[in-house]
Amino acid sequence: MPNLLVKPKGIAGRVHEITPESAGWTYVGFALDRLAAGESSSGETGDKEVCLVLVTGKAKVFVDGEDFGELGERMTPFEGQPYAVYVPKGSHWQVTATTALELAVCSAPGGEGYKAKVIRPGTHPLMTRGKGTNTRYVTNIMPEDDASAHSLLVVEVITPGGHTSSYPPHKHDQDNLPAESFLEETYYHRLNPSQGFAMQRVYTDDRSLDETMAVEDGDVALVPKGYHPVAAIHGYDLYYLNVMAGPSRIWKFHNAPEHQWLFTGI
């Protein structure tokens, strides 16, 4: 199995390029471009669908020649909700940065009958999950109840310093609906201040997979299976962007039974 912690390749250009082949799985792809004002990134979706997330900065976005205008407003991922653009299979996209830009390219198998669209801040409400030191703030970019995509589920989460997230531990690695869905997942992590770190554990019931990682600003964690809780350490807020996909576009998870009692308090 590939290393579950993926470090960025440099500080500019395409710093992440995670494919199903490199991850050793089937559905999810994730890339990240860091561009200066005036620089561009582009791609052909082929048989995949793509969600372009403007993690930071502003850009002009074109899909199959259609001009979506200049999008983006936040300069850090900790400043509110993002702009994103859905791009269906069989399409060409181009993004030209008008400020320093961090662009996430989230991909999964595409389907027929979907159209390109802009996903603006406020399209889906900011949600608060958990209580106490398990409180975190969730923005669904492409949730399962939005029928405008074939495979992709995309969400971002802010976890304050000293808090846990993706916790109590849950997993979604069995294609066993309606009890549980199979979804591969990536976590793109950012820290504020950037010199911080967070902890993420990925493990299965039988511990055949059991890795604990110190994730730093700009790292990607791969979750092929198992439980995957995250802890933000004191003094450093954590942002992560999740990409999920599998045979069904449904997020149905299974909680670790030994930690089920925690739900009575949160």
UniProtKB/TrEMBL annotation:
GO terms for molecular function: 5-deoxy-D-glucuronate isomerase activity. Keywords: Isomerase. Gene3D superfamilies: Jelly Rolls. It comes from the Bacteria. It holds the Pfam family KduI. InterPro entries: Deoxy-glucuronate_isom_IolB (IPR024203), KduI/IolB_isomerase (IPR021120), RmlC-like_jellyroll (IPR014710), RmlC_Cupin_sf (IPR011051). Its EC number is 5.3.1.30. PANTHER family: 5-DEOXY-GLUCURONATE ISOMERASE (PTHR39193). This is 5-deoxy-glucuronate isomerase. It comes from Pararhizobium capsulatum DSM 1112.
